[in-house]
Here is the input.
Amino acid sequence: MLGPVILAASRSDRMRRLISAAPVTKQVVDRFIPGESVDDVVPIIEDLTGRGLELTMDVVGEDITTAEQSHAARDAYLALIYRLGELELGERVEMSVKLSMFGQALPDGHELALANVRPVVEAAAAIGTTVTLDAEDHTTLDSMFAIHEELRKDFPQTGCVIQAYLFRTEADARRLAAAGSRVRLVKGAYKEPAEVAYQNKHEIDKAYVRVLRILMDGEGYPMIGSHDPRLISIAQELAHRAGRKPDEYEFQMLYGIRGDEHLRLAAEGHRMRVYTAYGTDWYGYFMRRLAEKPANLRFFARSMISKG
Here is the structure.
């Protein structure tokens, strides 16, 4: 299976240098990451919201080694929120944050990440939007969930992400599927050991459906993070069985993948949110997108060959 190999490459400095130096890389990366700055992505935001879509914005970057870098990540989100406020797009665009960017892995990282993310959540609330805490590898999740719980005391709309391939996720879903919660369910995109996560695609898909059923039957707001047509159809059926109205759940898909499906779902009256990343430190994000789906890797390989 190529997925684990690609995920290993995502942490390789040598592979980072090779791929970054390839002439075709920028062209392919632009499919998934439409810019490096707020100015680059504002036209994308305006275009997609004008088409009836909603967005969640991710300022990419995870290899934080100093507190100063974590503060810079915080400030990058604050600058984005300021622009969204100017554009009066707070009700259409939320933020997704990785706590690793805010210093979670540094000494006293839990407290540092909480101190950095809180002003971002406060600023988001001030313009009428919110923040979702992205899930990373399994060793970070207890800290992420604790920060999520703390933030929800003052900002109950703060969301979080759970990953279907982890054995723990069904229990997490039961705990999180409470009134007022916002939970995005994804399959998972990190290289996890067999001791904590399903390794087989079929088992992961079955786990996804089990967890999705828990969320749909709960009192919170499920966010279905998937491009899989079968899982999208199952989600619609589960929502119908649970008696959910179209504004009581939403679909989320990545920018650059199945764009026609984004528009189709929105046209049918579903809430459809596009996960849109931007920034200069794109490598780890890009490699996980390749690992998630063979079609993404084939697209990259064809581009490399055609431009070779």
Notes: Residues 67-86 form the longest helix (20 residues). Residues 303-308 have pLDDT under 50 and may be disordered.
